[in-house]
């Protein structure tokens, strides 16, 4: 089901995830926007566990009066699932590695500038492209806080595999193999939900040994087979996946609750 970008602004809750820009892709895995009144996070879908170190700007509106209050959450090298209901908005950035200290602890001037961007977007537009642009500007500010060579990709061919695994886990909180498995599951989930392609083709595209291999992996992580998942989500009248690729081709994943 396709959801025009102008429609989701009036929904109860949404989770949007965007591709990083090409010049940021060596350092930033993706950006995301979550708006919730407790509906989305009250369901099991609301944990939003991520294998990535993520920086978040949280604006809580839970039983408070006046404007939302900003809470800056610096990135940590661990998986950090949400275990509580969320009332408000979260703007976030997922990194491929733990970022340098200037990004982990940006000056107040940078936080104020980012807060202004987010506030302006919330007040003047609820469209996908406006949110995408606000996240892009956020990343630009963060990336400008460090010299270019600090955020460039450093090859590790000279390091032993053991040293690489140890450094990877210390930065990400998870070893390379399960990290890659989570990445594959995320992209598989997106293809199953957003296309009508045969499951055997999707298994092939994501380098599973066969469809049965994909089904076992999928059931282990979701409790459903790929076919069951596709049927449940395609027939739901309350939860939808955004497929607004023409208007926002950088959209990786979107969940909307009416």
From TrEMBL:
Keywords, in A-Z order? DNA-binding, Transcription, Transcription regulation
Q: Name one Pfam family in it.
A: HTH_18
Q: Where are the transmembrane segments?
A: none
* Stretches assigned to coiled coil: none
Does RNA-binding count among this protein's keywords?
A: no
SUPFAM superfamilies assigned to the protein according to its UniProt record, in alphabetical order: Homeodomain-like
Task: List the InterPro entries.
Answer: AraC_XylS_family_regulators, Homeodomain-like_sf, HTH_AraC
One Gene Ontology molecular-function label:
DNA-binding transcription factor activity
Which residues does the UniProt record annotate as the domain HTH araC/xylS-type?
Answer: 160-232
Q: Which domain of life is it from?
A: Bacteria
> Which PANTHER family does this UniProt record tie to the protein?
HTH-TYPE TRANSCRIPTIONAL ACTIVATOR RHAS, HTH-TYPE TRANSCRIPTIONAL ACTIVATOR RHAS-RELATED
The molecule here is called: Helix-turn-helix domain-containing protein
Native source organism of the sequence: Pseudovibrio denitrificans
């Amino acid at each position: 089901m396709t959801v025009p970008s102008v429609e989701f602004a009036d929904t109860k809750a949404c989770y949007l995830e965007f591709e990083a820009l090409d010049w940021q892709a060596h350092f930033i895995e993706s950006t995301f926007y979550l708006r919730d009144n407790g509906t989305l996070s009250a369901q099991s879908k609301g944990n939003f566990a991520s294998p990535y170190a993520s920086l978040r700007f949280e604006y809580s509106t839970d039983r408070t009066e006046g404007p939302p209050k900003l809470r800056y959450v610096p990135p940590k090298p661990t998986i950090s699932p949400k275990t509580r209901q969320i009332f408000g908005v979260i703007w976030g950035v997922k990194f491929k590695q733990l970022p340098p200290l200037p990004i982990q602890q940006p000056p107040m001037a940078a936080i104020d500038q980012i807060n202004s961007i987010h506030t302006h977007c919330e007040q003047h537009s609820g469209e996908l492209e406006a949110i995408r642009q606000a996240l892009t500007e956020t990343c630009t500010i963060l990336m400008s806080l460090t010299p270019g060579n600090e955020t460039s990709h450093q090859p590790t061919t000279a390091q032993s595999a053991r040293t690489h695994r140890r450094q990877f886990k210390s930065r990400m909180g998870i070893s390379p193999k399960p990290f890659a498995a989570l990445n594959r599951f995320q992209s598989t989930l997106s293809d199953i939900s957003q296309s009508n392609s045969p499951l055997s083709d999707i298994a092939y595209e994501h380098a599973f040994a066969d469809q049965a291999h994909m089904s076992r992996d999928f059931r282990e992580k979701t409790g459903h087979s790929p076919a069951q998942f596709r049927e449940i989500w395609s027939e739901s009248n309350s939860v939808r996946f955004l497929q607004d690729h023409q208007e926002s081709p950088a959209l990786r994943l979107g969940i909307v609750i009416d």
